[in-house]
Structures are given as C-alpha cells and as structure tokens.
Design brief:
Elements lengths: L1 H18 L12 E12 L2 E5 L2 E2 L5 E11 L3 E9 L2 E10 L2 E11 L5 E8 L5 E9 L1
Parallel strand pairs: 3-9
Antiparallel strand pairs: 1-2, 1-4, 4-7, 5-6, 5-8, 8-9
Length: about 140
C-alpha cells in the first residue's frame, strides 16, 4: 500500500515538473555560432588580424560573429567585459537564414587587462564567449 501511494506521489511530481514553463535560458537557441573571434579589423566582411593578445597601441577591436541556422529574426547581443566589469553592450539584428556575418566594434583605447565578449541571442540564451588581452 505504501509503495502504491509513493509511486502515485512520485508520478504526480514528475508530471507537475514537466508542465512547468521553461525559463528563457533553457529555451533552444535562436541561432548557432559558426565563428566568434576578435580581430583588429574587418575587410570584405571577414576578420583581419585575428588574435587573443593585442598591444596597448590598439584603439579599437572587432568581435566578429558568423551566425548559422538562424531560426527566426532575432538579435545577437555582444556583452563586453573589461577585467570582469561590464563596460559595453551591442545589439545587432539577424534575419532568418542559413548564415549571417556581423560584428561589434569597441573602442578600447589600449586599456590593459583581460577583455571578454559574451554572446547571447535575443531570448537571453548564452551562446559563446571569446577573450583577449591587451598588454
């Protein structure tokens, strides 16, 4: 009898959990990341001088994204962090399709330290990150 009640309670609990709405961060991503790199420039829609270490004479850096399998019109959100502190956010539109190239630019004025660019889709799903140093 106790086993029967326990199984019923367990079955109800599992059913109740599966009926809960899915949080935004657990939803399927709106696109996939083909490439995410940091570079000193962009030429012909491609990154130039890709790197993870740059000298202090660098004024601007570009975070290049190749988005693939874009399921619906959405936004690519680039969150720029310098030494762990959020310093900038760039939002770029992406249109439904198989492939889009986009890039965000940040003036860094040679600010030394660790830089990280985190990438999110329009629903807030974390997709990828790339880090670089200015020294």
């Amino acid at each position: 009898m106790k086993k029967g009640i326990l199984l019923c309670v367990l079955a109800w609990f599992v059913t109740a959990l599966t009926a809960l709405p899915v949080a935004a961060s657990e939803e399927a991503a709106e696109f996939e990341v083909g490439r995410l790199v940091v570079a000193r420039g962009i030429e012909d829609r491609e990154p130039v001088d890709i790197g993870t270490r740059f000298s202090t004479d660098v004024e601007v850096v570009y975070c290049f994204l190749e988005a693939v399998n874009i399921k619906q019109d959405t936004t690519a959100i680039f969150l720029w962090l310098h030494n762990g502190k959020e310093v900038h956010k760039t939002e770029l539109p992406l249109t439904t399709g198989t492939r889009w190239r986009a890039w965000a630019v940040k003036t860094v004025h040679g600010a030394e330290g660790l830089w990280v660019v985190e990438l999110y889709d329009g629903k807030g799903n974390f997709l990828d990150s790339v880090e670089f140093w200015i020294e």
